[in-house]
């Protein structure tokens, strides 16, 4: 790139990379993006398309997707003023980071966490205060509180259950972090439906500094539809909504959301299946020599292998795409894979077993 042009760009661009999915997004057995293996049934897609057909495609949707917001607020049993919908939770992360950070502001991020947090903090020229996880990849709660206090951080970002570690904070630990620091605490609950822990939504009325982030991309099987939500008290919501890009949610996303929420028994069934597979697959993995299997609170499992790059390539050659997460701190030689259909998981187990 021409140096004179680079000089004109945001200097932070020199410190970030474009997002990419190593190994791509196509495979016979695709276990690398923590998606649901269950697509919506055709009868539901037909009903959604039928409704969407009668929309005016030449008109803008609402500035903010009030219908989707209302549907999710009713589903959660809270006021619409506490809820904001976005085009995937990634978009909401941009909005919330823009609202909470600026040059020189301090943000506490447990490491390793979802990579977008770091990237957004760098882009906004905020100061990152990293708090490493424990050796078993669990959260260092004391460290998070101590660092936030020492550094007088105004923003803490917690992904729980956490991607990429699969570990969670308990509700009590989140309450402590909220009480013992003077920060806005963003709790990203992308994987909460798979967790043994209670949701931080239980603390929204109690804690004015809490924002909870949700996605419909994982348990609700809508990764392709791009739907995320933030939940907080109405006062804070009015502030964090200010930088939001208008019109980012399509009517198709709103309509789809309503249909999925109206048929939530399908989500419950899918989650049950995935949790059963998680336990079954973990038990089989533990019997394979040379693997370390981390306890998971999500729809994916982390294993440590002798040589992650080799195992990743071997599996890819067999048509199985997993995520090589060995570049993250504390996760050397670790691979991550979400639960697929039983037969897909069996194939993965067979190939990993063959490496023994
Ligand atoms: C912790 C976490 N947060 C947010 C997201 C973004 O999800 P989406 O933009 O699909 O809602 C992901 C996706 O993998 C994630 O793992």
Task: Give a brief rundown of this model.
Helix content is 37%, strand content 15%.
Question: What does this protein look like?
Answer:
The protein has 12 helices and 13 strands. The protein folds into 2 domains: 3-40 and 265-354, Aspartate Aminotransferase, domain 1, CATH 3.90.1150; 57-262, Type I PLP-dependent aspartate aminotransferase-like (Major domain) (Aspartate Aminotransferase, domain 2, 3-Layer(aba) Sandwich), CATH 3.40.640. The mean pLDDT is 96. The strands form 3 sheets. It has a 7-stranded mixed sheet, sandwiched between helices. With 356 residues, it is of the alpha/beta class. The protein is globular and about 55 Å long.
CATH class of the largest domain equals Alpha Beta
Any idea how many domains?
A: 2
The CATH topology of the largest domain comes to: Aspartate Aminotransferase, domain 2
Mean pLDDT: 96
Separation, N- and C-terminal Cα atoms: 46 Å
Taking the sheet with the most strands, its summary is:
7 strands, mixed
């Amino acid at each position: 790139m021409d140096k004179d042009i680079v000089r004109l760009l945001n200097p932070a661009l020199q410190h970030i990379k474009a997002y990419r999915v190593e190994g791509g997004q196509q495979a016979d057995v695709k276990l690398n993006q923590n998606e649901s293996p269950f697509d919506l049934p055709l009868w539901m897609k037909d009903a959604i398309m039928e409704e969407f057909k009668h929309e005016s495609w030449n008109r803008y949707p609402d500035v903010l997707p009030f219908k989707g917001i209302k549907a999710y607020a009713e589903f959660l049993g809270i006021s619409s003023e506490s809820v904001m919908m976005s085009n995937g939770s990634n978009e909401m992360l941009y909005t919330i980071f823009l609202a909470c950070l600026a040059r020189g502001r301090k943000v506490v991020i447990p490491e390793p966490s979802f990579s977008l947090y770091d990237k957004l903090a760098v882009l906004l020229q905020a100061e990152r205060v990293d708090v490493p996880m424990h050796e078993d990849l669990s959260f260092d709660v004391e460290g998070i509180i101590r660092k936030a206090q020492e550094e007088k951080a105004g923003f803490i970002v917690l992904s729980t259950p956490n991607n990429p570690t699969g570990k969670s904070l308990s509700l009590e630990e989140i309450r402590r972090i909220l009480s013992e620091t003077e920060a806005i605490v963003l709790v990203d609950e992308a994987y909460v439906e798979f967790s043994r822990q209670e949701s931080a939504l239980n603390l929204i009325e109690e804690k004015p500094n809490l924002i909870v982030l949700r996605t419909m991309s994982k348990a609700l099987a809508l990764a392709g539809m791009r739907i995320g939500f933030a939940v907080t008290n109405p006062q804070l919501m009015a502030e964090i909504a200010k930088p939001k890009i208008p019109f980012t949610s399509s009517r198709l996303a709103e309509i789809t959301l309503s249909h999925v929420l109206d048929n939530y028994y399908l989500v419950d069934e899918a989650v049950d299946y995935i949790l059963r597979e998680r336990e079954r697959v973990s038990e089989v993995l533990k019997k394979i020599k040379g693997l370390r299997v981390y306890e998971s609170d999500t729809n994916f499992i982390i294993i440590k292998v002798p040589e992650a790059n080799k195992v990743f390539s071997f599996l890819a050659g067999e048509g199985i795409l997993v995520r090589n997460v060995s570049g993250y701190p504390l996760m050397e030689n670790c691979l991550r894979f979400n639960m697929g259909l039983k037969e897909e998981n069996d194939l993965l187990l067979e190939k990993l077993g063959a490496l023994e």
